[in-house]
Amino acid sequence: MGQEATSQSGVTARARSGVIPLTSLVPLPKDLPRPKPKEQNQNKDIGNEDIVAKLQLQVEELNARLKDIAPTRGPAKHNMLLPFLYRLRHESMPKGFRMPKFRTFDGMGDPSNHIKAYDSQLSFWASEDDVYTRAFPGSLSGAALKWFHKLPSNSIDCWQDTVDLFMDKFGASILAEEDKKALMN
């Protein structure tokens, strides 16, 4: 059945499982550090119920904040869509939609002319604000496209947001073009 072992001090130990605990064979010194009892709540003014309530509030706040953040499904396949709100990123383009071909804006030239040209070309294909917004990155190249890719996530909700951000960034180039023309005359 069990095994017996005798320590050097003559203490006999019997183990049922065949494993003899070391403590039964070798006496432990009295000066070994002992584990301390688990520490109690340091703040005596706050009971466990208060701590739980505070944690529940924090969880609710975090959940509310997470609802504002677009859910992700792994790495983004279309980085150019990241500045758009979640609803725009996941809305389908109209069936048969094709991006019109026209000169892209690279950050040089008049951005208001680009918006006008974009609007006139796209108006033949779509009348929906969301289509204008989603298709806009296709009208950019070079520095302008790099700028667009660096826009913060969820910063664009509609076509007007797109135009405002675009003109804020490149509107100064209108003045530069006018200055250039004035110098040449």
From TrEMBL:
Show the coiled coil region(s): none
Disordered, as annotated region = 1-48
Superkingdom as given in the UniProt entry: Eukaryota
The Retrotransposon gag domain sits at 135-176
Quote the biased-composition stretches of kind Basic and acidic residues, using this chain's numbering.
Answer: 31-42
- Classification via InterPro entries: Retrotrans_gag_dom
For bias type Polar residues, the affected ranges are 1-11
Where does the signal peptide begin and end?
Answer: none
Output this protein's name. Answer: Retrotransposon gag domain-containing protein
Instruction: Give the organism, scientific name.
Output: Lithospermum erythrorhizon (Purple gromwell)
